[in-house]
Design brief:
Layout: E1 4-7, H1 10-23, H2 28-47, E2 55-58
Parallel strand pairs: 1-2
Amino acid sequence: DEVWFCEPAEDERVRRLVARHEEFGKDHASALAWVRGTDQRNADLVAATRDRADLVVPGSLRYPTAG
């Protein structure tokens, strides 16, 4: 077994979470409040385990796209 820790840039993490909450019906203000509250507490909890990961995948890593 391996544990990978994906570490996106903070602004990208927030942007994606807000978009996901909006996709499922929250208005922008509610989505942003949820991301800054509940989701942030969860992110902080997960980040505390970073040092136990076998591999840290940086947010700056870009994958080639099929063209």
